[in-house]
Amino acid sequence: MVQTVPAIQGWFTQGHAEGEQPALLGSRCTTCATVFFPPVAAEGFCRNPACSGERFEQTELGRRGTVWSYTDAQYQPPAPYVPASDPYEPFALAAVELPEGLVVLGQVARGFGVADLQVGAEVELVVETLYTDDQGERTVWRWRPVPALGATGSAAGGSR
Ligand SMILES: [Zn+2]
């Protein structure tokens, strides 16, 4: 029996159920409504220095954002990075600004690289397998470029 579970519990939903989309899970301060990612404990101190809030509720973050910055990881990052392949295959990382105003770093979806990215371009959240161990598949969120309106999709590897 192979399970598909998040590599990190509680940071995102996988959206495997019918009609369900994956989403990052953030924490919203019940006092100032500021949203944080990664999520914080249900009770703690708000990271907004102007706020004395101590309670948070879970909230799903917007599934689409815009590329704020990106980079190419040509060398294998140090631990706790888990190599997805041996030998190491370079991958692209994108920092994506979400509608909530925060920036979330993530790998770029399989099959895409820095050549598919542009600052200000739209990307959407997908959940892909990070690695497989004897427990099953471990998943992580990634950012997938959204083809611009009117594009044929050839550059984005869409239709075939
Ligand atoms: Zn607050």
TrEMBL record:
**Domain ChsH2 C-terminal OB-fold stretches:** 59-127
Q: Which residues form the ChsH2 rubredoxin-like zinc ribbon domain?
A: 19-42
The protein's name in its UniProt record: OB-fold domain-containing protein
**Record's superkingdom?**
Bacteria
Tell me the Pfam families matching this sequence.
OB_ChsH2_C (PF01796), zf-ChsH2 (PF12172)
